[in-house]
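Q: Here's a chain of 176 amino acids. Please give me its 3D structure as tokens.
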Amino acid sequence: MIATLIRTIFADPWPFWAGGIIIGLLVPLLYYFYNTALGVSTGYGNLVKMILPSRHLKWIKSKFPETWSWRVYFIIGIILGGFVSSALAGNLGLTSEMGSFTTNVQWPPLLTAIYFFGGGLLLGLGARIAGGCTSGHSIHGIANLHVSSILVTALFVIGGIIAANLVRFALLGGAW
């Protein structure tokens, strides 16, 4: 009974609506307890500040006054949660598989790592330019009816569709 409950909560995929409700409840809870918005990219800024503490980068000092904010623990929780879920599902282990991409594109591991690292850098740059990450704009901004977040989220979706189709046609040989 307990094992089934643990597996249901931590290992089996949740229905989209249940995950949406949980994430939706985080927005008011974060405002109540921390007076802040839900987002991930700021946590990565805190991690950069930890890695480069003696650098004189004005944007790091002004945007991230404290090094250990709740967002660092949030990122750690995301990573640990993935490991716990994988372990409970019986699939614990590191993998370089990235779904249909690595199934269909037979690149050397180093080239694949460079490709995804470059994508991560572009995501970070986009988050800086847009004034927040997709989760911050889409979950927090839309919930608060910020017109800029509604616009940016629409552009995220359009850009994602275009980018996914470009990758599919350029690297995976066209439509499936």
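Q: Can you summarize the key feature?
A: Residues 1-94 form one domain.
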